[in-house]
Write a structure and sequence with these properties.
Layout: H1 2-19, H2 24-33, H3 38-73, H4 76-92
Length: 111
């Protein structure tokens, strides 16, 4: 039981770390000047995306369990953003090999 909580905490910590991004202008410059290479794309596909998917699933389960308390406390939107949307955005809404959410078109590149 304790090992499961440690894994959940590690996944949430990783998702939080991955979802913290740099400002859009800085990301714009980075993607234009340094497009992701094949190594970072492969690492993203093999390591980061499965971890992000696990964080999204665990966050969704945690959100469902905490929903009655979030409703009582009036912070459903904050819980949704932190537990579901943040990890999902980091996992599904970014180009392969990029570090921050957003399509490549958002940064001036091509998809």
């Amino acid at each position: 039981m304790q090992a499961m909580f440690r894994r959940i905490a590690a996944a949430l910590a990783l998702a939080t770390t991955l979802s913290a991004g740099m400002p859009a202008q800085a990301q714009n410059a980075v993607v234009r000047e340094n497009p992701p290479g094949p190594g970072s794309m492969a690492a993203d596909l093999i390591v980061a995306r499965p971890i992000g998917l696990a964080a999204t699933v665990l966050g969704t389960a945690t959100f469902i369990v905490s929903l009655p308390f979030s409703l009582a406390g009036g912070n459903v939107s904050e819980a949704t953003e932190a537990l579901v949307m943040g990890p999902a955005r980091t996992t599904f809404y970014r180009c392969l090999g990029c570090r921050n959410p957003g399509w490549r078109d958002d940064y001036g590149g091509q998809r």
